[in-house]
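tl;dr need the bound structure. longer version: we got a ligand (iron/sulfur cluster) that a collaborator sent over and nobodys looked at where it sits. i said id run it. heres the input, straight from their email, havent touched it
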Amino acid sequence: MRLRDFPEEELFLQGSAACQGCPGSAALRVAFKALGKNTILAVIASCTSVLQSPYPASALGLPTLNMAFATGGAVASGMTAAADRLVKNGRFSEKPTILVWAGDGGTYDIGIQALSGAAERNADFIYVCYNNEAYSNTGTQRSGATPYAAWTTNTTRGKGEWRKDVAQIMVAHGIPYVATASLAYPTDMFRKFAKAREIRGTRYIEIQAPCPPGWKFPSSHTIKVARLAVQTGMWMLYEHEGGRTTYTAGTQRIIQGQAKLAPVEEYLRAQGRFRHLFEPERDEKRIAEIQNRIANIFETLQFTHKMKEHIMDIEMAPPR
Amino acid sequence: MEEKMRLVETGNHVAAWGARLARAEVVSAYPITPQTQVIEEISRFIDEGEMDCSYIPVESEHSAMAAMIGAVAMGVRSFSATSSHGLAYMHELLHWASNIRLPMVMVNVNRALGPGWNIWCDHQDSLAARDTGWIQLYCSTHQEILDTIIQAYRVSEDPKVILPVMVCYDAFIMSHTYMQVEIRDQEAVDRFLPPFRSLWKLDLDYPFTHGSVIYPDDYEEVRFSIHQAMENARRVIVEAAEEFREVVGGYHGGLVETYRMEDAECALVAMGAVASECRVTVDFLRERGHRCGLVRVRCYRPFPVDELRGLLERLQAVMVVDRGFSFGMEGALYSEVKAAVYGHGDRPVYDLVTGLGGRDVPYDVIAENMEAALRGELPAESRWPTVRLNEHHELVKRSLEEYWKREGVR
Ligand code: SF4
């Protein structure tokens, strides 16, 4: 799949109230293209609740239910159970895809109970977390997804804790599909949505969503920042199914040695929310902490990759 | 004559029968004492193929209501049941259901709130949910639980109403006791209750965004429409009760049920099972020469203002028996009754707050107070006639006094 093969039909319509360069709206556009018209949407309190435009107008070209903050997994459980009934009674000819669209606040923090419950029941829907790593809707406060050392309005000297990893928590639930995605790799994202559409059960896709006002970078830099996140290892792209994780796109290239892991400083410097790591003086300690953490992860992954190749070589070598 | 199916069942199992006869297709619920038997019975119905329904065993009451909202928004008749802390936990979403105008029925088994943990009956849980835009109906017999659930769907889905309905009955006094009930004939129920319909649903052919941001320019209209729907519900509830009597059989009153009110000079007003105790009080008082009657409020929202005015206007005294309280004010039902009759006649209205946390409500205490009221010896503020101090309370009182002494409070 190449960009020019994307369906032309737009289900994310004009007239949204998103900020310039909003990652949420860009992600919606790709997701809608991949999922198509037979999709019903539940939007969980987040920037998307606002950016879809006020009543009665809407920039969402799919039937949409806006729901309260903590409800993502639960409202979708009800929708998918009802959709099964409608198929069973012949009122629907085909089951629509039920799509939950939530931010990181509604996923990592207040919404994790409902999401976890639904995943444990393996309820049949796609759950998307577009992760802007803060409560952007309320003006950028720390969330469970905010990375270490990042500024928010209530972590003014940088967050003191590391972010938790909900995608891995979802892997631990044993659901049929978990994937991470990036705006800088739209074809990878499209493929993951198209694949998720064909799977039954709970599917979780998390998209890193660099937010210009919240992260303090020019609104034309959204994709650039997203790409740097992958190139520096601050955001990793993978999919997990059948007990196996496969790294994809930019992350895969680094692990396989086709691209070099870029220094994390490039990513940190591209945004205002890490400025205090460089001004008034350089915070060597915290920069090194971040860099070491990433380096450790990638060293392990690269080692495992090499080992695998090595084992494959032995297996595939002709008998002597 | 056709065979009538009669069972001796708990109030909770009867509630499950209500959902089954109403042909609810999605049930989402979380267990909580004393509601648990409702969902156990429903899952048994489903497992044994007696009820064609999907049961979502959610992980919390907040999720139970969210799932129900999702299911109804898709256009499917749904049911849930809760109690006390469960109802409190889903409070946010009670607003959500009524504000986006979804018809649904949920049972609330009235139970006190903690701490301390108390699983027994009072009405504080549902009274605290008064202003969520839900219609609230209170039952006083098992048969009424069954019939009210079926009628509640009819009211909820009526095009003039389209609001969620909460059917309430008392913990243990009704939830776990056995009474004989007639399980209504499914065909008759089907004739009475048309297939599910709703104002709107999530429609692939007509994509629409529900519940998005709404500016001050439109918001008041949304709230006003809920008020109008509540006003319409007054008539629809009465009509549904009448039609149920004709088509299915059985009648429990409209917005209120009365007992010996025809020639009454004084009256008791109560809700739920305690109204049965009040009937005994009425008979007792009549034996002692007081022409007393009872008005049982079946419907707390919308509140039966006209009915109460008509019934209470010319009496000498009205006594409200309250099983819930509005702290810093007075009994919750008392305020409503006074407000309803304000400016219509000048009979005094008294209030007994009693039966909280499952405490026994003795008929003679009510009778005693009514006699005092008739003699003009009862103060106008809410009285707590069954509150008493035992040794444990004396202990608490003493430590409180010591604390006050330390803090210099006189
Ligand atoms: S604050 Fe960020 S996520 Fe929210 S609308 Fe603006 S750009 Fe999008």
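gonna send this back to them w/ a short note. The longest strand of chain A covers residues 97-103.
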